[in-house]
Fold each of these.
Amino acid sequence: MYIYDDFDRTLVQERVREFGDQVNRRLSGELTEEEFKPLRLMNGVYLQLHAYMLRIAIPYGTLSSDQLRMLAHVARRYDRNYGHFTTRQNIQFNWIKLKELPDAMADLARAGLHGMQTSGNCVRNVTTDQWAGVAPDEIEDPRIWAELLRQHLTLHPEFSFLPRKFKVALTAAAHDRAAVKIHDVGLRMHRNGAGETGFEVIVGGGLGRTPFIGKTIKPFLPKRDLLSYVEAIMRTYNQYGRRDNIYKARMKILVHELGAEKFAGEVEEEWQAIKEGPLALDAAVVADIAARFRYPRYELLADNPPELARAREDNRFRLWLDNAAINHKVAGYAIVTLSLKPEGGPPGDATAAQMDAIAELADRYSHSEIRVGHEQNLALPHVAQRDLPALWRALDAIGVATPNVNLISDIIACPGLDYCSLANARSIPVAEEITRRFRDLDLARNVGPLHINISGCINACGHHHIGHIGILGVEKNGEEYYQVTLGGRADETAELGTILGPAVPYAEIADVVEGIAAAYLELRARPGELFIDTVKRVGVDPFRERVYAAR
Amino acid sequence: MPLVKAGRIVEDRFVRVLDEASIPDGVAVILPAARLLADARDLVLRQAATGVVWPNDRKVAELAPYLDWIALVALVFPNFRDGRGYSQARILRERYHFRGELRATGQILRDQCLFLQRAGFDAFELTKDADAAAFVAAVHRYSVFYQPAADGRASTLTARLARVSQH
């Protein structure tokens, strides 16, 4: 957990006061909606189909139990008793009244939470591995670097009116859980030949209507140069990114049009001019930030304690354990995922009562810490293995122990046409129907790890391009249709999915997904071959033949 | 359009000269970029101050040869969402050490004045009278600055370093 100091707290409070003033000027008519829009967006306030939506940042997906209780309070007091966790480590409240927004923000600020730069054409919430600090495969805690970037890029005077939004992600693990190759700037920490850690810098990735996998422009950037190099990238983008067409304004288009090499050259020239300036990171500054990350005092425990072995005899517990708990870097502990994907429910929603209960369980079993992942689930990151049976009973009682993590019903979806004014089609009801089709978890387990991503329009907030099965909502003659892609992935071998065949109407999309699962079971080389590997091996044609033959 | 300098609404002593118009003697003028570049050899001899309006899609590096005698650079914000001028301002101040007046013109709101000031602007042509009146409050809204910029304000990086060295 990063503990805010007086600087951080003061800045958030000053921001809340400024926004309160802006809301008053909007309510009095002094600001037009056109003028207010970029100001509210930079505070995470959208105007949706039915109401204003407030998006709150959860930096690097780490929440304290007190912060989660504050989110529950906001859901209860200002919204309709629930919140929606997004694919970018944020939470959204969908029903907040404009005049109550400053109060909601003041309440959130008391817990160190805010909506700064969660939307608008500025640098968004810096994201990282949701298991940072506890993952066995990381080389160091990436959150220290994410926090340095967060601070540097917060209310940055030069980069608050960029051509378009700007997303940064960082990973320090062998397995990339932060999807760094589909961000404007992706940073992968690794060790060079001399044994020093630094960053591979990847730029110009992104989804939306023109998806690109990012390109490496710096194989190894020393840590001291992180801020100056990112500053050089941002300055290049701010000056040369297109502003004539909103659909061509993201950095990926600039990188594509200039070519990665030329872009890298521009950045390099700018960087050489500033790298020895005030942004060169002093080791003492880094150490000071690192010192404000608090880690639990772990007990000396052994893996697989007898309590766990006994509890495994219960079939339901064992299925959940094998699905939702993974190894922690400290012996005797586990990282536990809480599925926010119940059968027939909207992906990523949590009620105020669930949030309060999870906060309580985090206090009791997880050193008061909760994680939020881009798969729209929560996690308790520091659970002693002996406590797993008791924790499971408590999670089961509040409906967040569905053992479907990483299975076909663990669906990532944007809010879609139920909420969003940009959407062409609904996402949530499609997700809900698929979870019903795979309510038999024996079937889901047989199909194995499989990510479905659903976007309600080409803006791709549900990241459909990188879903093993991607579903994109489109509109045809006023009807909702869905285009399906196969074989996308967001990890270190990131790839965009390939279109399966013609789009299908709303009533048939769940049938198509069932057909794909059935085709996979037929096509896989052996039971252990993952869906994504089968698609890679055989291509989409055999899937197309099987799924569309029946249509 | 009120002009704010040093926190106060002031009279503009500069006169804007359009493309083909003649340049009045003894009067501070602001010229279009092309005019400055074409007539620089004569302009440097003028007795009164000379300034330039520089478009936001042209590198400010081109201005470098003239910066020791130019009195003013006006950067343009065609709308308040277009942030190119912030980068141009920082480069002028931090790389070329321009010490003359750096003026923000076009469409700007009070909510941007602190960012503009931090980027190095010291003169602001505001579209709204109410924004000009609220200028001082607007640029004092924050007391914490996470990053160094062109305004010389201490950033938290430096402040934390000072705190670390006290330990």
Amino acid sequence: MLEDKLLIWKFNRGDRGALRGIYEKYKDDLVTLAAALSTDVSSAEDVVHDVFVSFIQSSGKFRLTGSLKGYLATCVANNARNRNKSKRRRNDAVPDETNAAGADSINPEFSAVFSEELKQLSQALGRLPYEQREVLILHSYSGMKFKAIAKQQDVSINTAQGRYRYALDKLRSMLNGEARR
Amino acid sequence: MRPADNINDLIKKLQLKASAALDTRVHDKISAALAESEKTKSVHAEPTIWRRTMKRSTTRIAAAVLMIIAVFIGICHFGGPDVAWAEVAQRLEDIKTVAYKITADIEGMSGGPEGHATHITLDVKHSYEQNAVRVDSSYQVPGGTTKTHTYGLFEDRIVVTLIPSQRKYSEVTISDERMKKRQEETGDPVTLLNAMLEHDYAELGRKEINGVMASGIEVSDPKLSAKMGSFISGTMFDETIVQLWVDEQNKLPIRIDATGSSHDGQASMEVVYDGFQWDIPIAPALLKPEIPNDYELLAQGNWDTGNEGEEIIDVLRLFVEFADGKYPESLKLMTVAKAIAPALRKKFPLGPPLQDKEFLARLMKVDMVGMTYATLEKDGKDPAYYGDKVSIESPDAVLFRWKIDDGTYRVVFGDLRTEDVSAEKLAELENLQR
């Protein structure tokens, strides 16, 4: 945490090394988060790229109130959500439940790097409705609290927790081979 | 059925690596954005930079001016092991005024009596709000005490020093360009802390200072001094060790101890900064000099930029004129001052020719020689100085050189002749004297 504060302090003074340090420190986690949300590695990298471009522009005025990792994760989630909305609009309002961003559209390289078990998980994640997937990933992978996730999704905490439970139930079903029955 | 915990564990195992392509894209953006930011700052944010630069530079510039009267000492470092560094830096950024006291004992100071230490006390009042600083100095040597009052007036880009006992004053004007160039080495607490964090430091642990629990660190990295300008002993002495103690409660410096010495061990100093008072009210009148009508202008100098190498040659010329062409071993202020002082005393046994303004202006360049050389280093001019083995008796040996453009160096030979040569030719010349 202290190291992050230092990095931010230097970043705000235009220290190129600090900015690179922040990127190197969090890039893998952010790419993973974005990929889990978008289920597509190349989109995920675009998300992370865009987030850092915006972040760079905040140099000199950035104020860190929580954790840097949490802040960047929130930025990634926001960017991924916006992209998902655009994609949905382009697909002319295909119902989210049937959008199945995962199973068919999942980038092969995303699955290829995982073990069989994780591959099944990533494919199952792709079949979850976006909002449920987002709550699950932000809570379980990024450790974000339901209150923060609810604020991001502009829903109540109960709704966020409900989406989390639904997501878990569906994943459990899918991973046990029950989803297709 | 998989329990939820198991699924959560699986999710946590998800881990991708950013591709090399993404790395390149982001790093390129970082480079481009920062380059653009620098350009924008220089074009649009000039007043801000100027203001910040002026704010941060006065104390050190004031220090430089004081050297002509006696010899000025200065060291600052900030940090601390049990202290959150970013918090300390942030606290310092928000500071509007600070007053503190510096006490220094210097042995082997040029102009001082042999075998006696010169005791210096400086009361510093610095207002970032008013862009001004005042330093009330007392130089105590056996046989007398000299008091001076120095005012750094940022907006006017001028530093004025009054010497009441002689009813004289001196002025140094500083060009805009010079002020900008010194932005990163101004010696102010925030810049120093930043520089310190980039270097190795040793943690000193905690101790109680005047009933306050403090954390301390020590820095002796010679690379640090080059970034710290003349107010730091790095440009005065060859070796310095600085200890900084920060109040653990309010996250602000409480005491700085420093020692410095020349390579030959003939000059040394011990300095303490303490009595820090942060954000105290400082009346504007305190920071403005009132020069009585009967005060005579002792010396007038100009601190410009772009001609650092030539300024150093002017200093070296003093050694040809007064010291038989035996140059100082290094271009650290104390080494240069100590080397030239005996020759000047011999030449002017009744004291410096105060009526010779031009000569006094040349002496001012001695005061700034350490800073001037550090500026060449900082600006990537690749300077090198060989006064430890070259004198006027080796007229064709390279005494000093610096880069004047990408492929060309200006070389100063032992007889102070200058010649612009290619990097290859310079390598040949320097190889000859190895």
Amino acid sequence: MVYPIYTELTQCRDCYKCVRSCPVKAIQVKDGSAVVIKDRCVFCGHCVDVCPNHAKKVRDDIARVQMFLRGGKRVLCSIAPSYAAEFAGQGDAVLAALMRLGFSGVSETAIGAALVSASVDLYAKRNGGVCPWISTACPSVVELVRKYYPQLVGNLSHVPSPLQCHCAYLRELYGEDIGIVFVGPCIAKKVEADTTPGFPDFALTFGELRQWLEREGVFLDEMVDGIEAGKISVPDFVPAPAGKTTLYPVEGGMIASLMWGEDAFQDHAVAISGVDQVIDVLDELPRQEVRGEGGTLEMDVYNDFLELLNCEGGCVNGPGASKGRSPAAKKSLSARYTKTRITAQADKLFVPPAQFLDKLLDKGYDLLVRGDRRSEYPPTGFLPAELKAKFSDAQIDQALKDLGKVSKADELNCGGCGYNTCRDMAVAYLEGMAEPEMCVTKMRKEAQSKIDVLLRTIPMGVVMVDEDLKIVDCNVGFLHLFGDIDYSIESEIINLISGLPLERFVPFYEQFREQFHTSKPGQYRLHYQDKFLRVTFFVVEKQRLVGAIFEDITSPTVRRETVVKKAEDVIQKSLETVQQIASLLGENAAETEIMLNSLIDAFKVPGTDSEDGFLPDEQQDLT
Amino acid sequence: MEKVTVELCMGSSCFARGNSQALANLENYISENNLEDRVDLVGHLCLGACSKGPNIKVGDVSYSGVDPNCVVDLLVEALNKAATK
């Protein structure tokens, strides 16, 4: 099945930008194409954001939700509070539009946040004023902890995420048979829909919602007008509007809604956003068991409640939100929205029921387990053992050699391949996650040495020039032909030549200029000084670099002329012979003819013209 | 536990309009969750309902115009039903 983030292979064109941006290096490069490995992925969405070819896709769940709505269930929309920043000025229109799409009602995910905040406060009150948990509001942080810091799973909040709590609460209010679809700025929320089906049933991004509205022909501007004209009604939030937890999508917003939020110094609660900083925090955090419930370690900071959000600045800047509004604007919009809310509608706000809080703290994640509901996808729990392979130093050194890093000095740690260090890259190469071709230094070095060797060993003159007809590169053969230098040329001199104008070496340099404009580079024969040369032009880079190969064909030319001469001699000789034979034959024939004629005369019978009758026999020898 | 039979129309119209992807999605899901002994996949040549395609039948229920992204949901629903029977 398709996971929340996947790769469109045909669109990927090896730039490694995704590898570079991936905080956990969950991207495998195979045959030049980058593929997200789901078992390693924390679904932060960075790769989706940075991919210049849009080859990283977010699973489109619109069709699934549409089918779900057609199923006839009562389906509620759990809308993330960041909608205030996403649809500034169109907030009411979005709510009305959701009803038009077929939802039975709209509820705020911030209700779930209110439940979580109240639970954390309650827990802290019961535990000496501290609650040393990692917030589970960010599903990407939860994935990060599960896959890469399994020892810290015990540190995760004992109550589920705000969205999951929201769903559990709605189901308690309206019955098990309802459906819940989340709409928000987050890609990773799709994982919650996958791993705890029903909590929620589906998760859409704001981007998907916009797409869906467009497809259905629902325009928010028109909705705004309709609402102002009183033609379209705006649904009230069910069961009630949430309070200050609508600030959750901004870094620090969660803590602001907790009991520590009232204190300007906020001791015992720390908000950190941005995945790199989150990783730094997790790297240092001791296990819950080491610390013990309530916290007793000397370093008190570990007893703090940690609000960790993988998106910098909080959910408002999530990958499922639209671009084009600054983080400052989004933060400000969220803050104003929350402030208007708690001042204007103070009497209507949602108050977490005490008995449900007890249930949350008591049962925690067990609230989400349903015997009758199959998990739709294998829960993306821990990193599979085969992905945690360890390699010996010898193996890594060998891998570094394969990558062309023979000595420590070769390890540039440039990050061009996407990995921070050459060593990281070598490990990824051993794991089959990376290919040697990803190392730009290696490839460039290889290409350079290939061309160097080729130029040095080829028994011809080679020169390459740029569009200003300045020499970019040439070889010794070229200098032998045109440089009037007989002694063997050291390679250093060649380096001095690059940059010099071609006309200083060849008189026919204008011929090169034409090559920049012809579609097909040609081959010519050239008589230069006392030599015959075959010139083959070639284009290195269109309109930028043209080269020529000069092949000395002087000696073969001379040899050919000799052959032609000899052949002509042979023809002449044989002609003479034939003529001699012919004349002898003629003489012979004439002599024979004379002799035969005399014979004929000798045997001739006289008087052949006489009449019939007896004739006298002149040769009377009948004795 | 009852087996669930999923019948897919593999006629050229349904195949081209999404059932090839639907089949791939189902096969992936079944193998990832080791459901080989709970699901039967059956392919058909054209069922004569091309205009309404892609067509698919899960258990006793026929569906038309199915988006390939949805087939796993249909299967999961049928499996849940079969499990509670």
Amino acid sequence: MTQRHSTRGAWLIILASLIAGAICVYDYYTPETGLIGTGGVELVAGAAALMLLASLVLAMVPSRSGLLQGFLVVSILLDIIGSSVAGYFLESPIIMAAEALALIGWLMNVIGDAADRSVEIDDVED
Amino acid sequence: MSKIKTLTIGALGFAAAAAVTLLPMNHATAQGPNNDPPQVWDAFGGNQQAQKYSTATQITPDNVKGLKKAWDIHTGDVSSGAHATTWGATPLFANNTVYTGTPRYNIFALEPDTGKMKWKYAANGSKGDENQGLKNRGVAYWAASNPAAGQPCQKMVYVGNMIGQLHGVDADTGKPCAGFGKGGVVDVNAWLTTNAKWKIGLIQPPAVYKDTLILGWAGNDWVYKTENPGTVYGIDARTGALKWTFNIIPSDMLNQTGTANVWAGISVDPETGLAFLPVSSPSPNYYGGDRLKEMPYVTSTTAVNAETGEVKWSRQEIHHDIWDLDINSAPTLVDLNKNGQKIPALVQATKMGFLFVLNRNTGEPIYPIEERPYPASDVKGEVAAKTQPYVPLPEPTVADTTPPVSTLADITSFGECSRWKARIRDEGRYTPPSLRGSVSYPATVGGVEWGGGAVDPTTGTYVVNSDSVVQVYTLVPRAEADKKYGNALRAKDGYAAQQGSAYGFKLENFLNMWGMPCWTPPYGNLLSYDLNTGKLNWKKPFGQVQKWGFYMPESWGSVTIGAPVITKSGLVFIGASMDSRVRAIDLKSGNVLWKAIVDAPAVAQPAVYTYKGKQYVVFAAGGNGILTPRLSDQLVAFALPN
């Protein structure tokens, strides 16, 4: 059963995933980064692509099932955590900053969604 | 550790008040204004004494953070796969020019402040028949003491190739010197006719003393019982004529063994004219049952007259080597003072992690060397030496016992590491090879690799990088080897044939199924010693392992190939690590003060020079497949911004 969910923060996650993806492309092809052609960068790039897809769904499909909402929220959080750890070991502060941005977006979305749900519940009780 | 100290404490007294004096540094001048003569770096080790020391003081611990890339070039000489390049060159700075050789045997002459090419010489030696791959450690430079005015080739640059040819060109123009060999090429390979199983590799540029080049060569180890026997040549620097040959293996052993060659750098004392040769191990490297007779010059440091090849002294640093623990780096020459008396010394760093500090005029130890008992071989036909030289002071760079199994690697491989360790023979240092497999620690990669250490001759501070690597070697009986591998000389699983001997062998890195080291880190350290006392100043994990782009913790260190240099201002510059970074380190504390990323691991020591009042530090970032697959052709110079 679908219901409306918050789209708040989704655009921030989209922005963060685009930044992470762009920096991955730069790192992958630039010798000075020390990460040229490395599997670790490919991994983060893949994670950024998945995050982009998930956050696009968050932004563009406000009416979605609770199951899908839960899947997206958990997936994006795992993506953020994994990419942050990867960014740490890649010694890439920009990737870590992008993930911090994504985390802010994720929190905005989760808190916003909870707030919206709370208002709906309050409405029913009234 | 305390045992080592206890055993050696009595030997410390004579060195307690020692100070160090400068060896002649006649080619180095103080840095100064633009019209001052530049400080040169005219030999692989900075000077012929292999000190790797620069008196330049512009870059200091206080300002090194501001170091920026001044220029870089890409030589174009890089390839991977079957013809992978291994470029461990230290560029030279002489004749107001930066010179470097490449793994495809080109010589580049560059402007020292811009990297712009002055000329390029193509030796054209590569025909794809190099049996040891495409390798180069740079070039040598010679200048006539009495140059003939207006004549070419009064200053020459030499590059060797991997098919045994030495090319000599004019240092000003890059044109071949017609009077050197045949049209500028000496076919050194042609001089070696006994058991000539393969073409010799002239990886390491020759040492230079007056008008003599002292040249060793690299061999194709592990594949035959009898191989090209080790020889060192004295060559006329002008004509390429052979002046002398030093045969390392006794003539009556030539049908039993081979190699024991000098493939690493050679150092020269300009005062005495002695050349110091680090002699490698004999073939077959991991089974010595057919070569039990004493061969005094193998695995030794040997001093010869640079102009005649006559042996002055020799000190064997490992007896009856069955671990391929070549003596593998140019001895570093430095004068020590004891109670005001000058002691002409050398430091021989080794794969075993021992630092032999010897009187370079006599070969006698300055710090005591003990003969310690080691385990017997359990392999039929093999007789391991009952004792081996042990150097308690300076403290060895690696421990005597194998590092414990890594819990992380063991858990993630479901106990693979500990099960493997339980199967094999491990009695620490000098555990003989066996049929069930033996731990090799320190392994054939060291300990200290071929770069050796650097010394500040004004203080006696000696800095060296050292690896902590565990390998496993397993002898394979001939019948079994022939059945499994046929006539193959090598196989991808680490097998090498040692054809003609009773055993082939397999050498494997002690890694788990995921490629993680099964032993505990650190995998590499940087160490500083006070040679006046033999005491360790500091020891720190050095570099970082990088896998799939991920950097492992700094406390793990990195396996290293390459070497440090020291500057008078109190800095150590070094590449060497797996993470393709170059670093500046505080000589006093060992702390990293600056680092930069280059295109591949810089697997030789950098060169330091001054030109027009500016100090440059130049690295060849060539990489080495032993460390990582990342290879490059980048030569990069760093300097402070204007």
